[in-house]
Amino acid sequence: MAFTNTSPIQYPTRAAKPALGTNPISIGVNGTGGDHFLLDMATTTVAIGKMVLHKELLKEMVEIAKRRGDPIPESWGVEKGGKLSTDADKIIKGGGLFPLGGSEISGGYKGYGLGAVVEIFCGILAGAHWGPNVRKWMNATSYADLGQCFVAVDPEAFAPGFFERMQELINTLRSLPPYDGKLNVLVAGDPEDKHVKLVKELGGIPYHPNQIKNCDVLSEKLNVKKVKVAKEY
Description:
There is one protein chain. By secondary structure, this protein is an alpha+beta fold. It has a single domain, classed as Ribosomal Protein S8, Chain: A, domain 1. It is built from 7 helices and 7 strands; from the N terminus they run βββααββαβαβααα. The protein has helices spanning 48-53, 55-68, 88-92, 108-124, 162-174, 190-202, 209-222; strands spanning 2-4, 25-30, 36-41, 77-78, 84-85, 96-97, 148-150. The strands form 2 sheets. It has a 4-stranded antiparallel β-sheet with strand order 3-2-1-7. Strands 5-4-6 form a 3-stranded antiparallel β-sheet. It is globular, with a radius of gyration of 20 Å. Belongs to the LDH2/MDH2 oxidoreductase family. It holds the Pfam family Ldh_2. GO terms for molecular function: oxidoreductase activity.
């Protein structure tokens, strides 16, 4: 297991200002035959990097929803002061992210609790900067002084047959019937394994167009060569 605290971008439930980071949790467990369960998740509804990446996409989604009369998703973040927002710019510039679960009524306090646990493991326990004392996101004028926590467990110190039972759990979850008959049930790590396979097939790493755009903007800012795209799909 691995944990780290990050810059304060998460608005705790009922708070008018951010005090916790995305504070990710990673847990890796082996099954048999090279199979595994590999969870890597933020304790916010979305990782801040994904918010930046999909800023333009989110704007487009909001506009389409408005034209259709569909409800606009309000689970990702808030503008400055803690008010619900579907404006990616307001969320990124001055606002922040909801805890995992969203608002209080939908269980956001649980994500807030998880984020606080990571803060305890990494900031408080390690004697590192914690909560609002960590430098702001994208601020490079001071040291972040983040803390990390790593936990290693030897399954052999417990009941025998752990890896076989773990594989049985993985197989059981994957074999559940999908509700729509199209998308299979996955376990943590399956999407990443699929992506690794795609990289091997393509002979390179596929990037989202917005990632390339962000790289181009940074290249111009630093006056360096732009990223060269080998092939477009």
